Amino acid sequence: MVDKKLKVLLIIEQCNPDWSSVPLEGYKYFQGLNHLVDVTLVTHERNKEAVEKRQQHNNVIFIHESDFIKKYYKFVAGIAAKGKVNWPLLNTLTYPIYAEFNDQVYKKFKTQIINGDYDIVHAITPMMPRYPYKVVKVCQHTPFLLGPVNGGVPYPPGFREKAREEYAYLNFLRAIGRALIPGYKETYQKADRILAGSTYTLNLLKDLFKIPDTKISLFYENGIDKSFLVEDKSKYPKNKDKINLLFVGRLVPYKCADIVIEAISKLEHFIQDKIVLTIVGDGSEKTKLENLVQKLGLSERVKFTGRIPQQETLNYYSQADIFCFPSIREFGGAVVLEAMACGLPCVVANNGGIGEYVTEETGFKIEPLSREYLTQELTDKIKLLVEDEQLRKNMSTKAVERAREFIWENKAVKIVELYEQIIKHKNQSSK
Questions:
Q1: Architecture field, domain 226-404
Q2: CA 73 to chain centre
């Protein structure tokens, strides 16, 4: 007899395979779970075209957006998302857009949830720990799983200038939102289980809502595709005369591509002659970074690719030897997992999720005590890895092993195991 698949109501407002970051993550969770359980996906209508063209999904409900909210979004984008994005302001002003979605999901599914049509309700995006889910009100008998939620990581004290450039002085809006947004506290207090995408977020939520250990657990936000796993790097041709360093990410202040460039400038010339740094990505800082390269006389050693399709980054990872990513405030940091999957020793700043991916066997984590300290430590670690080929090889092997834990299919299996545990506990508690 074949076991009946669990019926799951999966709420992923941001679920889009054509986009990057959270919308792509949302789709990857849906894609993995859809093969294992009976999923009804609820997402925003803005994702309809991208989701439907990928493959045939029978149970996808697209939530309509009103004309008023469409106009409101254009207005907000003009204020906060023009040029360099003011994320604290944008996240605050866009809440009414999410609130409409949240309310419609509740109205559409509350009766079905009350009637027990689903074995579990799982809400994944938005991932930031600042949004409520109204359906938790009717999940008295149906388990409600939230997450992984991730975010809230502060800027290190030694990087106030970077924080100002990223409008961090507006982060007080988070606390205001927690106090004023209806249903926010109720979501976290009534959830049967919360998954936190990083240790920082886990401790933040436990402190904010007095959540017991039995109701919250660590579940890293990001995953990787199997296609990124590179077992044999020798099949990828590369410049054998150079050690290839790589940075992948948006060129914005907190990602700290400028620190990578400055770290290279501090290397002795005989080390500099052995390396090439490729910076993959685009953003508001690109011109400034290009000027810095010129100023430091590194034009022959630092190359910019501009923005490229996500899947094409595999070519750059595969041809690289060392991944340098001293981002000082990273929540998910998918690029670090991708680099590890391609066998790259990673040198990262230890603040947020990326410091939890990297182990002593797979790379180096640098405490972001100050700009000067982070830069010098990055210089030292690059030198060590350039000069010690055996260390690079050892870390490369361990990096691939570590990355296997984050394959999307494996994460989906772990979530289904969690579903079964949560459902069992809910049933026992209701007896």
A1: 3-Layer(aba) Sandwich (3.40)
A2: 23
